[in-house]
Amino acid sequence: MSHTVFCQKLQKEAEGLRFQLYPGEVGKRIYDNICQEAWTDWQKKQTMLINEHKMNMMNPDDRAILEKSMVDYLFNNIEPNIEGYVPESK
Fold first, then answer.
1. Within 10 A of 5 (CB to CB), how many other CB atoms are there?
2. Domains in the chain with CATH codes
3. Is 39 exposed, middle or buried (0-12, 13-18, 19+ CB in 10 A)?
4. pLDDT tens per residue across span 55-74
5. Residue 82 predicted with pLDDT over 80
């Protein structure tokens, strides 16, 4: 069942996530405030970050860095630092 959210990242009403994809309070905040489109954009950046920084998702420090980048991107409009990546101009 889909639900609509006012996406804090894209500043518009849009289709929300189908279910909470991330655990805990951060996951609930994402589910309630981030649309599918913004989440998909983040997933692409997340993959680039993990690959570029050779992150190991079994490592708690790497997971913490990734979570901070995710929150910064989705809620604070801060682009992650990905070598050689230039965000598209809107």
1. 19
2. 4-76 (1.10.3880.10)
3. buried
4. 999 999 999 999 999 999 99
5. no
